[in-house]
Design goal:
The structure is a homodimer. In chain A, about 35% of the residues lie in helices and about 25% in strands. In chain A, strands 1-5-4-3-7-9 form a six-stranded mixed beta sheet, with helices on one face. A five-stranded mixed beta sheet of chain A has the order 14-13-12-15-16, sandwiched between helices. The first copy, chain A, has a three-stranded mixed beta sheet with strand order 8-10-11, with no helix packed on it. In chain A, helix 2 packs across helix 10. The longest helix of chain A has 19 residues. Chain A is globular.
Chain lengths: ~325, ~325
């Protein structure tokens, strides 16, 4: 299960006889998995043609191109294609609604784009929204949450999904009861690459130990002192000028101030609550490290792709019952 | 006093017989004032050739071009040219030191670039730095602070200088005793134009009343609740999607969350302290409005250019004593 993800290579199309397709159509990337009825992955293709790069009319062609060579087991029936993610956004392929919390992460509301390619039964899954106490939306993460719940249906706690816009979802009784979002990942990127801080952070990546030390200290500062983030940002530049603060220490400090201030702002979600962190790679490791520094219980870790696939399988199972 | 600032127009060079030149060489802009010995402004020229756009070797030519047609009253002596701002930065014309606080804002340490044009006695003023409790630097603002003190030498309080990187300087006995800097202006620009929030803020500027109402409410939230800024940023996007939050209300909310969190982080600087706000235009008005919302005493307002000129006059007076 889980063939390696490869870019679609027109010279080498692995013909695969599929029962349905699982698709994660994000802002930057598109991934498609050829699935058996039992939920096994036969093949995987990936492309950079995410929602952020496509006009609405381009989706059918991009999808057809990506899955070229994958043959339905039963050509007499439309091939079910389940899509989660930003393809269902207003600026995506076909807008899918938001289900308002509290709600199970999967439910009714999937939409079928009118220009879906012939032979494909395309369903784009809805996102989730919240109106009180704060307006919130998510699109794509609900499928990963569904994947986590498929493995642990009775989970009562918080699911954290780090990313460009980190989400913290409270879950009980199979439902998302509330959630909140942070711009932390995007803020880091903007500050590190486009603000005055970029001068001192260029070249970071060579000294993980320096990064981690600065990160942990900055998380601690943010948790102890609410104003640490706004008051501390310019100081990263000043320390570079006055004390020769090295790039990795600067990047670690910036990351720690940001993630620490996020944790400080959503304490009730993680303090004394069972935690799951769904993510892949360095960013999830940083959130786990920050939670450890904050004294939270050690979270269960789920790989992002596995969670997405488990969620799409669960969505498929629900649709087969319709 | 105070001729209107105009771009250098080669077709119309107002010949001016000058005693010295006052120059504010910032990151984005360069402004030069032709001055009499008594400190009156005869003429002013401006250009977009700020430090951010120049290589080190370009400064002499840019300066000469800008002041073409301005004739020294006494051609037998080098014309004094006093420069404040980022021309003295590491990536500027010629690096001037930082004077460490506590210090009078003007003192020793002015540097003369070795490639100054013939006939000009160029002095670039030092900036200020701080090492404890936090590393801090400023370059250019110290001259505006000196201008404020020239008008009110006994001032004991805080001077706030809004800008891309807002500074809050504590002043007593003619000296800057400490200061702190915030990235607030730059953060607003990055979030409003490059983050996910840009979608909902496009077109802001048409409804100042909506902006101001949202601004005031958001300042109040940030002052009351430390986590309001990180927790509230994504909500501006969500409110745009779910409730049709209008661009001006969104921009006002973003600005209020940012400036409010800055005030929350530097409360000891403005709470129960005499205040001066040095700035020009909308941004200074926003800081003054935020301070009012926070219950601070009404600040005295100084126009940024007047403060810069008063500071350069004070620097000239000190140098004449040397």
């Amino acid at each position: 299960m889980g063939a390696p993800e490869t870019e679609a290579d027109p010279a080498v199309l692995e013909p695969a006889v599929v029962d349905w397709l699982a698709i994660d159509w994000g802002t930057s990337n598109l991934r498609a998995w050829a699935m058996t009825g039992a939920g096994e992955v036969l093949a995987c293709r990936a492309s950079e043609k995410g929602m952020g790069r496509l006009a609405p009319g381009e989706y059918p062609g991009v999808l057809s191109e990506l899955i070229r060579g994958w043959t339905p087991r039963d050509p007499g029936r439309p091939l079910p294609v389940l899509i989660c993610g930003m393809a269902g956004a207003r600026q995506g392929w076909c807008e899918a609604p938001y289900l308002p919390v509290p709600t199970a992460p999967l439910g009714t509301g999937a939409v079928t784009p009118p220009d879906a390619p012939a032979g494909l039964a395309v369903r784009i899954l809805p996102g989730l929204c919240q109106r009180a106490p704060r307006d919130e939306v998510m699109r794509g993460e609900e499928t990963q949450i569904a994947g986590a719940l498929a493995r642990d249906p009775g989970f009562d706690g918080t699911i954290c999904l780090p990313g460009t816009h980190c989400k913290w979802a409270s879950v009980a009784g199979g439902a998302v009861t509330g959630f909140q979002s942070f711009l932390t990942g995007e803020l880091f990127e903007l500050l590190a690459t486009r603000s005055v801080l970029r001068h001192g952070l260029a070249g970071a990546g060579e000294d993980p130990a320096a990064f981690d030390a600065a990160f942990g200290a900055a998380v601690g500062e943010s948790l102890a002192e609410p104003g640490a983030l706004p008051a501390g940002l310019f100081g990263i530049r000043a320390a570079g000028l006055l004390d020769g603060l090295a790039p990795d220490a600067g990047a670690g400090r910036l990351s720690g101030l940001l993630i620490g201030s996020e944790l400080a702002a959503c304490r009730p979600r993680w303090q004394d609550r069972p935690l799951v962190v769904i993510g892949a790679g360095r960013l999830s490791d940083l959130y786990a490290a920050a939670l450890a520094r904050a004294g939270a219980a050690e979270p269960k870790r789920l790989h992002a792709t596995e969670a997405t696939l488990a969620g799409l399988r669960a969505a498929r199972a629900l649709m087969e019952l319709e």
